[in-house]
Design goal:
The chain is 31% helix and 27% strand. It contains 20 helices and 31 strands. A 6-stranded antiparallel β-sheet has the order 13-12-11-16-15-14, with helices on both faces. The radius of gyration is 50 Å and the shape is elongated.
Length: 789
Amino acid sequence: MARDAPLMVVDAEGMVIRWSHEAEELLGRAADEVIGRSATHLVNRTAASSRHGTHKGAGVALQHRDGHAVDADLRVRPLTRSDGSVVWAVFQAPAKEATGPDVGSAALEALFAHAPVGMHVLDKKLRIVSANNAAHVMCGVPAERIVERRLTDVYALSTPDEVEAMLRGVLESGVPLPGLVVSMQPKDAPGRGCTVLVSAFRLQDSRGAILGVAAAVADVTEYEKTRARLRILAGVRERVGRSLDVVANCQELVEAVVPGFADVAVVEVVDAVLRGEEPPLGPLGRDVPLRRAAFRHSGREQQIQAHPVGDVRSLPFSTPYARALADLKPRLVRLDSDTPWLVADPARAEAIRASGVRTLLAAPLTLRGTVLGLVSLYRTEQAGTFDEREVALTLELAAHTALCIDNARRYTREHTVATTLQRRLLPPCPSSQSTVESAHLLVSGDEGGGGWFDTFALSSARTALVVGEVTGQGIQAATTMGQLRTVIHSLASLDLDADELLARLNDTAILLAQERAALPPGDPLHRQVLTASCVYAVYDPLTRTCTFARAGHPAPVIAHPDGTTEIPDSPPGPLLGSSEGPPFDTATVTLTDGSILALYTTALLPASPARPPENPSSLRQVLSDPDRPLQDLCDDALYRLYRDTRPGDAVLLLGRTHTFPTEDVATWHLIDAPTAAGTARAHTRRQLTEWDVEEETAYATELIVSELVTNALLHGTPPLHLRIIKDHALTCEVQDSGANAPRLRHARTVDEGGRGLFIVARLSRNWGTRYTPDGKTVWTEQALPPQPS
């Protein structure tokens, strides 16, 4: 901005009509020497001839009284006088701040001379023209020997060709390169490497002519070390802890730190921790065994190990490893042939000498005062020793790993308890009946605990086969499974049809789900949805039929004796615990003698994009040879189908069905007459004599048959049938067409009737009523002495 008072005022003819005191000081001329004369005599014509002015003012050279030129930045402004004429006021622009070309050059010179970064000016042949003092110090080359040499000849860079190509590219393209990180070995310290950042930009003059390249070399060793430490820490936090397996966490740690942080890494864990037990309190006792859980080295050849992975042993007390576990502090030790404590551990001494490591950093794996294990990191001579920051970083890595190991330990313990509970709630082996030979396979998954299987006898020589799975994992899933299994047994004893049994079982599942939802919101179980799948099948050897119903479970696979397999078409039904959905339905298939019924969970089957796990084509291939022993088929299914990556419990239940021997069953049609009870007793007596049933059991059976037939005559609807089945137990059945169920009564002393079913209940070990589309069947069971083998 111009000053308020003009230096001079010039009229329209160019005559000076006013002269200020500032103008007198600037040009050394008094007012009487200038006023009335033309303003052109104030201009230094020699200096002005090379400049261009405008009517708005320009930088011009004025003539001082003693003859030298005076540079002035002038501004001209028109002024209107009172008579209407126009004159021109000449002002001097304000003095500029100290940012002109001279100051900029001085700043560049100071930066070049005193910057802590190696600055170099290269010509178009990429040879050094000049370098600052920092450059001489960094490369270790005297000033007189650095000029006319290439940058890659002066610095011992790890990738000189890459740096040379970078400089050439900047020279040709003119695009500055912000930085290339390379390693370097200083001339004055060949054993101590460092990391430098090489930056470059092209130099041009005011006309755009290319002069060369300016290159800067900065020592970024500490910066890169910090970045490397942060990368290692981030890598460990990202990788370690993804698994709920103790050994997997240890392996993830050594993979994260080798080779970026250490040349060799070993993790040893207290053996009890691997089994899910509580870790011991620190300090660790001398006799506490540790298991080598993970090992990794950076060499290409097989690295010699002191002890193989999986080896269990106590640490010698007079070693850094044991001392680190004694006071729970890290140990940083220099290793050489004279290290005294190596004699206490000859196996480690041999491995250390063979691997060429020179530095050991042992850090305890501790959590809340307990000791979980030890991590040992080794470096060779080339990698250098660990500094204090790296020791602190190792402690952070150890703390994170210890937390992950403890989480995995807790999961292992809970999984072990859940698996044990699951197996205790299941039958030790499925009960094979005379007409159903069974075998099973159960593999508890990491995310399972709720899978179950079962086979048990029903009335009339029938057999029930069940496979199901509760969602969720751990103890809660196993407990819920046990509850549902118990309910199935209770409902099956009521002789319910398969679809009706699943409907009542679904009511139980809904009740359990409601109880779970009513838990406090802070309870983890409150947020877990309770559902379950189940398939319930009943095989009747007298009719050679199998009736089954499904609750969101895969359909069974049937393998026929001729090697063909089929999957019966049946509605899947809703999952147990669902309050809405279609009702359960049944499907009935006829089985030939020797057929195999396979019930399973989807975790058994391999999954692929082209074949979902619900497609049991692979299981059908396993069952295509049905003559093999059932346990061999179960093992073959495990070998061929199961993959550890599948969640849930893998369950397979196989049942080979047979027809019932005709000689062990007898059936009679009874007329609807008062003599029917006597006729039934006679038939029974003859048949039991033929079967060689002992007298006491035969007498009790006659009474039972007499009472059942009498009740059917009084309260039932003809026709009447009597059937006696000799199996592991002796079964008596009386069938009629009526729907009224018999009821056990306790007759009073003076009552003449009502004691029939009471007598039946006392003489038999079990009795019940089973409804069919044709009516009902009242049955009883009596124990038979074991038959001689």
